[in-house]
Amino acid sequence: MKDESHILRSWALNAQNWIQTIDNEEIESRKLATNRAIVEAILQYRPRKVLDLGCGEGWLTRLLSREGIEAYGADGTAALIEDARRKGPGNYQVRTYEEIVAGEPLDGEPFDTIAINFGLFGKESTEALIGALKERLAPGGQAIIQTLHPFGLMEKGVPYAGHWESNSWDGLKGEYTEPHRWYFRTIGEWVSLFTSLGLAIRELREPLNPESRKPLSLLFVVG
After folding, report:
1. What DSSP string runs through 122-168?
2. What local confidence, expressed as pLDDT, does residue 2 receive?
3. Coil/strand/helix, residue 119
4. Are 87 and 70 within 8 A, CB to CB?
5. Cα distances (Å, whole numbers) of residue 36 to 81, 111, 141
């Protein structure tokens, strides 16, 4: 696996900025559709136990707990997990994607659902992680993955092909430093990745901006 440690390093440096961004609800697409989209997709499958992987400061884990679900949050950035624990009760643990790929145990496994909400940034690390998650799912379980929709980049004139983007914090308020790169996949490349790992796509949703009717994200349910 190629070195993608710049991603985790950037998150560690910018953890407090991210906490402020989420606490202040500064990301418009989340308010318009994407937060609701991931919650509705999870609740539709009526899971008893969920892993919120890449949970950040824990908003989704807390919400699922209030719905009566046994929810676990895991993230590779210790400062984000510390903030999640301060904000309310919950099952939180510091786990990097590399540790999960290497077989490190996760509290609560196996899970009925593993949710990854805008938490996949690498190329090889994403491929390895999704492959490793199959072992953490209960029989019949599913992974629910929400990620960027290619429409947003295409509007900026970016070619529709797999490639690395450079500025992960572009457009966000705050004193963000050292942006990390993230790997962009086309819809076809996501489909090919899941197929190569033996995962069936149960659903593909495209949450829309309710005003412009343009897609804000891709949401896959695979298992």
Report:
1. -SHHHHHHHHHHGGGEEEEEEEEEEEE-HHHHHHTT--SS-EEES-T
2. 62
3. coil
4. no
5. 22, 21, 21
pLDDT, average across residues 9-37 = 97
Burial class of residue 157, CB neighbours in 10 A (0-12, 13-18, 19+): exposed
CA proximity to 129, closest of 158, 154, 162, 96: 96
Q: How far apart (Å, rounded) are the C-alpha atoms in residues 117 and 146?
A: 5
Q: What are phi and psi of 49, to 5 degrees?
A: -140, 130
C-alpha to C-alpha distance for 58 and 87, rounded to whole angstroms: 8
**Quick check: 123 and 183 in contact, CB under 8 A?**
yes
A 10 A CB-CB count for 210 gives: 9
Q: Which domain holds residue 143?
A: 5-222
Q: Give the number of domains in the chain.
A: 1
Structure pTM?
0.96
Measured between alpha carbons, how far is 154 from 150 in angstroms, rounded to an integer? 6
Residue-wise pLDDT tens digits, 39-79: 999 999 999 999 999 999 999 999 999 999 999 999 999 99
Give yes or no for a contact between 162 and 184, defined as CB atoms under 8 angstroms apart: yes
**Do residues 151 and 215 touch, judged by C-beta distance below 8 A?**
yes
Q: Where residue 208 sits, what CATH number does that domain have? A: 3.40.50.150
CA 66 from chain center: how many Å?
A: 20
Q: pLDDT tens digit string along 109-166? A: 999 999 999 999 999 999 999 999 999 999 999 999 999 999 888 888 888 999 999 8
